[in-house]
Amino acid sequence: MSKDPFQVLADEVTLIRGEIERLQRTSLDKDEAKALHKVVAKGVADLNQILPTLERSIQHQLFDSREIIREEAVMGARGAAETAIVQSHARSLEEAAKLAQAAGEARRQAWMYFGGFWVWLAFVGTLGCLLGVLGTLAIVQG
């Protein structure tokens, strides 16, 4: 069922009246508005006086923060570089020890190989001398 148009109009008017009363309770009258304007104008004027000092203070704090960050970054980079150098040095020492061990092993192998060569060469020389002496004796007796 639809409502009577007169009843709908009466409901709307009642609703509008309630909104107007609420607005009247929350709105300022002329004297209150002037007083509020004075307070706001004084606050803005005070803010305008404080603003340059506040700006300098913020800039100073930003500069200090930037310097602190820069110093910490330099200290962090220095620490990382020192750690990398120490690790690199330790690794270089390990590799040098491995190379020295490999060189010692190569030296032992070379001595074993060349020692065997000299023994073989001495044996061949001795054999040659012995055959030469026997050949000379065979020629002299024969």
What topology emerges from the helices and strands here?
Elements (H helix, E strand, L loop, with lengths): L4 H22 L3 H112 L1
Description:
With 142 residues, the chain is an all-alpha fold. It has one domain. Helix content is 94%, strand content 0%. It is rod-shaped and about 165 Å long. The termini are far apart. The mean pLDDT is 85.
Descriptive keywords:
2 helices; 94% helix; 142 residues; mainly alpha
Tell me, rounded to a whole number, the average pLDDT: 85
> What overall form do the CA principal axes indicate?
rod-shaped
Radius of gyration: 54 Å
- How many angstroms separate the termini? 159 Å
In short:
With 142 residues, the chain is mainly alpha-helical. It has one domain (5-113). Helices cover 94% and strands 0% of the residues.
